[in-house]
Amino acid sequence: MRPTSGAILVAAGAFLIVGAVATPLAVAPALVKVPLDQSSVTVSEAKNATVLDFSTLAERSGVNLTAHRAVRGDVNAGNADRTVFNVGVRVIDEAGKEITVSTDRVALDRRTAESVACCAEAVNGAPFKHEGLTYTFPFGTEKKTYQYFDNTARKAYPAEYVGTEKLQGLTVYKFEMTAEPIKISEIDVPGNLVGSAQPTVTAGRFYANTRTLWVEPDSGVIVKGQEKQLQTLRDETGADKIKIIDATLVFTEDTQEQQAKAAKDARQQINLLTTVLPIVLGLVGLLLLLLGLFIIVRAARRRPDATPVDAGDGPVDDVPSQRSGEPVDDPTVPAGGRHAAERAES
Fold it and tell me: Which region ranges are annotated with the description Disordered (predicted)?
């Protein structure tokens, strides 16, 4: 092959090696992001819960609850840096009766998953600024404490790393956050409901929650979620008088499998961009580089040397020089010379 081919291979190899270095440093961060068109539904269940029947103002115990949470991305409101989620949560009992319903609209950074102030964010239709993480953790989740937003309390709480476990065939990080009892609203209720002699009193509605999240660290996907939620009505002394909801909601097995699959798919894409592709580009680039150098060196060695030629090695010229003193026969004259030819003609 010609040296030019070798130079082309060297250039191609160098280009691929540069690509191998650039892919995990520049390309991967630009592509590994929370999707704009997020679409998922998670289901949680609670056994033997206690809820308040507002129609009779009596507690119901031994109730089985199901919570459906739908997350939909608002593609038009998102861009290269942020994504916007519209979220709805509906909790029903085994008879399909609605216990609670809530909505949320939040914008988050597509790389860090942190909430950003944008895009008409709101909780239950009322404008509200979110803080911290919400429905996902960042890519490359670390073993540290994160701030996690609680929609009911409308504030962020520390979600502390408490350990590493195996779940659905994945290594996951376990985080726990505790929302201490906080007043979230006030409700006018019959006085006897909270131990008052007054016909009607305004009782404080208090909320507390212990939330546990199992997160696949590479993708930030929450594979399993659990909430130990308690809502009560308190009297004027601050004592709990009646339970509105007392339940431990946990992702169903089907939801955990669905979330695990999403985490595995995301991990494969991340691994492709950060490990597999750089290695392949690097190896192919190195091979082309070495092959190109080999061709160039080989071509240089095969090029003939420009050494002088010895006089004895040159070709011998048998034709006398025109400057020689010896006579030269005329090839057009027959043997015997010019006079013999003249006699023949006469």
Answer: 305-346
Phi-psi region of 10 (alpha: psi -120 to 50; beta: other; left: phi over 0): alpha
In the predicted model, what is the mean pLDDT of residues 265-290? 75
pLDDT, position 295: 76
Sorted by where each begins, the domain ranges of the chain are 32-251
pLDDT in tens, 287-345: 776 776 777 777 777 766 545 555 455 555 554 544 444 544 544 444 444 444 444 44
CA distance 63 to 46: 8
- Rg (C-alpha) for the chain, rounded Å, is 43
